[in-house]
Amino acid sequence: MAARRLTFSRITALAPMVRVGTLPMRLLALDYGADVVYCEELIDIKMVQCRRVVNEVLGTVDFVAPDDRVMFRTCEREKDRVVFQMGTADPDRALAVAQLVEKDVAAVDVNMGCPKEYSTKGGMGAALLSDPAKIEAILRKLVSGVSVPVTCKIRILPSLEETVSLVQRIEKTGVAAVAIHGRFKEERPRHPVHCDHIRAVAQTVSIPIIANGGSLDLVKSYGDIEEFRKATGTSSVMLARAAMWNASVFSSHGPLPVESVMEEYLKYAIRYDNHAFNTKYCLCQMLRDKVESPLGKQVQAAQTNAEISDAYGLQEFYQKTQEQLQARREALQSGSQPDRPVMDGDVTTMAVKFERREYPPHITPKMFLLEWSRKEKLEQPLYETVQRSQDRAFQSTVTVAERKYRSSLWEKSKKFAEQAAAIVCLRVLGIPEGRIGEEESGLVCKRKREREGKTNGAAEEEGNRKRVAAHHQQGTAKNGCTNQR
Ligand SMILES: Cc1cc2nc3c(=O)[nH]c(=O)nc-3n(C[C@H](O)[C@H](O)[C@H](O)COP(=O)(O)O)c2cc1C
Q1: How close is the Cα of 238 to the center of ligand 1, in Å?
Q2: In this structure, are 298 and 354 located in the same domain?
């Protein structure tokens, strides 16, 4: 069945807001009653470098930059409500970005209102307002190149006639709607919004106009949204700051105390592993003049979502959520790969996990590997660990005798990832790893013997030397490895 095409008449929308409009805030706004949610502006140059990653643990689709930063995270729940806003001054790049995200979003929007220098100096944002030919080129390219509706967000121009004329040109490109922030480029958010300009434009075009700019003095609660709609003569309204301060402004049941809104926001941030700095930023916006209160100071001092959860008494929720995510991670991993070596490039991999309970206290595979390497007069095992951004899980690669080993399964901590890599190396080389019940394992016995003052490692050493040599000479195929690619 074809997906429902998003329409923009008679909607109330969460406005695009840098840093604020990430997934937790968008879901929160939808919960309270927003019809449409815009993401924060994302710059085309950064987005074109991203790859699309399905994050099965979180149940999200992530657009991940080459440095592994998640630039845009979305999920099924918002798929037919989320508008992807981009900053662009280049029709081809704009199209490439729109095509990258179009299957995961309900519409794409171009920001033509940002007056900040970082935007305008690249010809983006409000700089586009003085280049209508460029506006047309970008919008036409998008409209003809993607299957979802295309919109744009502008500010008003110095004269009403200029704004009307620009929006009429924009309408002809085939866009589905235009959001108008009723302030001039030079005006700041504290200046009154020009409802009369928005009204005049709305009367001259037939596409929906989305009125924006009323948060400061006009829209304080749900009832005011309708007033703002009437004052601007539009069918749709977009809220930025009023929603940022308290997203329950979208609720027809009236506003909720900001304390409970912050709590709900934080739950989404935990559930979707939102970056802690972003979580902090949004909570500080909601705290407003209470940002220097004891709670505000605790939030500001926090470095992780766990610490922020402490500040709000949500430790238990945080813990439970982490356990659920870990369980999902393990379930996904266990079904995927058999317990035999597979070559991934020049690395020998196996699907193994480090289970602490399988080893006696004070015994770890890493210790065994180190001890064995010393005995073999090899260089100390070298561990290199990476963390992936989508779920912060770790994977470690250990180099022993110039060969690399790693577990294909990701672990929740760096320590566990290193232990898993050590297990792979020990198993591939056929060396005991110290597991409980590992009958008469050479090293376990040797430890005992050493403790008992006996040494007799000659036969054992000979065996170990043979194992390394075999792995080196025969190559991985003869050790039961298969190539992954
Ligand atoms: C924190 C913040 C970030 C913003 N980021 C964006 C953005 O990414 N894209 C955009 O078009 N406008 C952005 N804006 C402008 C808002 O979308 C909106 O036009 C403006 O705040 C006026 O609406 P309001 O009176 O409802 O706040 C931002 C505003 C704020 C307060």
Answers
A1: 10
A2: no
